Amino acid sequence: MKFTITRATFIKKLNDVSRAISSKTTIPILTGLKLVLSDNGLVLTGSDADISIEARIDADSETNDLQIASTGSIVLPARIFNEVVKRLPDAKMTIDVQDNFQTVITSGSSEFTINGLDANNYPHLPEIVNPQPLQVPADVLKQLINQTVIAVSNQESRPILTGVHVVISDGQLLAVATDSHRLAQRTIELPAAADSQYDVIIPGKSLVELGRMLTDDIQTVEMRFAENQVLFVAGQTNFYSRLLEGNYPDTSRLIPTSSTTQIEFDAPALLAATQRASLLSHESSNNVVRLNLNAQDQSAVIYGNSPDVGNVEEALTFNSLAGDDLEISFNPDYMKDALQGFGQTTIEIDFTAPLRPFTLVPSEDHEHFIQLITPVRTF
Description:
It is built from 6 helices and 26 strands. By secondary structure, it is α+β, with helices and mostly antiparallel strands.
């Protein structure tokens, strides 16, 4: 196998694929990067058994300047190969696989020789063929990921909660995540897939990596499901993830259907105030801030306190406040994560009682996005 390619093009694909490669794996060959060169182009593959990423570089693309001398395949040690490629001196590089899988990498006056492995020993990726794949705008999918993965659990004691529950039916995709202290739920419309029915749990870590890959030059992502795998096709890149097995808890009953106190904020203003209050709460062992709402006086005050350092008190600016007076305490980090998912919108927060979960929804789109936070008992 021998080819020459523009280094910048190769590095872009290499960075994508490297997201799936881990140095900690029980299968030694998976610490390597698989390269397969055919007359059609070059395919790079990385995997840690849970996530697999496959990126293609077409032979006929003018921007790649891929010149094929001979086809073949090789697995190269990912960490050192990455370092070598990124430090080569010239704009182009040549990779030449010789006998005994020795691989010579040349660029300008620099030449490296790296020992490779037989690509036939690399695990095969599943073939996921779906006659009616789901098409989702890349920017919408990226936003959905950012808005839901914040609530996945990082506790392996309940592995099912480390994933995002995705239900597709009646032309809608519903994604929900919870760590039992907070919940994030987002719905998007899928007009072209009204007859598709799926109920799966995708690991949160997989979705985080997928979200990082969805750059502005990708317009649409295709989703295909198999028995225990999901495949996302984004441009010239295939992103595979295993699915979690088990039944996700029924989260619909956790969301309150009524409220006794409602307040509307500009999300950025409340986020900034919560960040200021958390400066002192983070210095305390319990990391709690308190919100005091008085509908009669039309006042909202947020408090942060650390017995060792001091306290902060700030009157909040809000758009409207109605209902019963309320004093409630919560983890400010949960509130900050939730508010960042809303961006520049105005939000409505609905409360039912000091120790009952409260919800945050966009003021103009209650149906498609909701965040829920469980308050903290402070007495």
